[in-house]
Amino acid sequence: MASETDTEIDVQYGLDDRPPWPRSLLLALQHVAVMIVPATAVAYIVGGAVGLGDATAYIVQMVLLFSGLATVVQAYTVGPVGAKLPVVMGTSFTFVGAASTIGINYGLAAVFGAILVTGWLVEGLIGWQFERIRPFFPPLVTGLVVVIIGLYLVPAAMDNAAGGAGSAHYGAAYNVGLAALVLGIAVVLNLFTSGVTRLLSTLVAIAVGYVAAGVLTVTGVAPGLLSFDAVAAQPWFAVPNPGRFGFAFEPVPILTFAFLFLVSAMETVGDMSSVTAAEGRTPTNGEFRGGLFTDGLMSSLGGIFGAFPVTSFSQNAGIINFTGVMSRHVVGVAGVILAVLGLSPKIGALVTTIPSAVFGGAVLLMAGMVAASGARLITLDVTLDRRNMVILAVALGLGLGVATTPEALGGLPVAARTFFGEPVIVTALSALLLNTFVPGEESPLFG
């Protein structure tokens, strides 16, 4: 096991450590519990927008299956594909808006056709040439991407903590109380206990919150908060069906998804940097290349079967920094669990009964940890002189500006709003351009 130094957190299990099987299983379940709701939420949102009805359950199943397979590939690799890092994969909210709009206007066949083409093409090309372009992504830039990813998750976490955006009981006292209970238990167990209790602090907190939600439901304080109706409606086993929604290759959807995979690549670079920050380092060229290959190739493969694109999950990077468990074998077990859930819609539906408030309390903590790990990357590896402070100020100011006040861009054309309305892109591009063209040690042109 690694120990704490000036440049790394207190790592309980290193990259290649294998915790005992019972502990590995519980640690893996912690990863699954934190990411399964947002991963499947993308399928529910898009399915609802395009009017899929019961067919949405199939997309949920495929999202879980390919999230699991991609996670296993990241942990163990298949040839050049995979990073051999504890990177948990899932469907990103980056693709929700485009998938919904294109699904309505062009049909889901155009969505999956675009995913099939652009996933391997865009991220495969970036991964292939990453060694050449890596000087353009120093810790100053990648650290800022990690920070904005974490901060960007906070509003969504708060929405979930309040009961879920659009919920009739949004902001109800019992929702806020559940979220506070989960957050408080996770913090107390992590800071004031040791051993397995600290390592499983997030999972224990979610379990306690789940039981509390059941009590509130049974006593009538919050009727319907915990419901198993969706579980009963699902079969125990379902076989993947390639090409179920067909494929169409339209220029506008393809260009749109090509842009979004660029966003996904930036997020993955940031998340991988957040993971290795636990060891006080940034990923190697080979790790970056393998991780980006997984993003693109597994997204295209999943699109054949009806899954939305998979990418690295920031909240799980937060768990690694929060618990100090960096073992890729734990994440590999989590991937197997997700794949099994993807073959059994009934079990997957059972896991997704976690109330939004319970999930929100956990993710609020994880989002903060992601942002903190990005800040740690910057403070460890970047000299905070006047030049770099200005770059930090501009990039974060613009990123948070479009995140908190998107209506400020209302007068721009739709394409421009789509591009400049992405906080991760605005932060990354502003940091990239300033860092490249302003003389300094971090600049690839003048350093």
TrEMBL record:
Q: Where in the cell is it found?
A: Cell membrane
Q: Which GO terms describe its molecular function?
A: xanthine transmembrane transporter activity
Q: Could you tell me the keywords of this UniProt record?
A: Cell membrane, Membrane, Transmembrane, Transmembrane helix, Transport
Keyword Lyase annotated: no
Q: Does the keyword Oxidoreductase apply?
A: no
Transmembrane regions listed in the UniProt entry: 25-46, 58-78, 110-128, 140-158, 170-192, 199-225, 245-263, 330-351, 357-378, 390-412, 418-438
Main location, first listed in the record: membrane
Q: Which residues form a coiled coil?
A: none
Task: Show the GO cellular component annotation of the record.
Answer: plasma membrane
Query: Which domain of life does this protein belong to?
Result: Archaea
Q: What is the recorded membrane topology of this protein?
A: Multi-pass membrane protein
- Family from the record: Belongs to the nucleobase:cation symporter-2 (NCS2) (TC 2.A.40) family.
| Name of this chain's protein | NCS2 family nucleobase:cation symporter-2
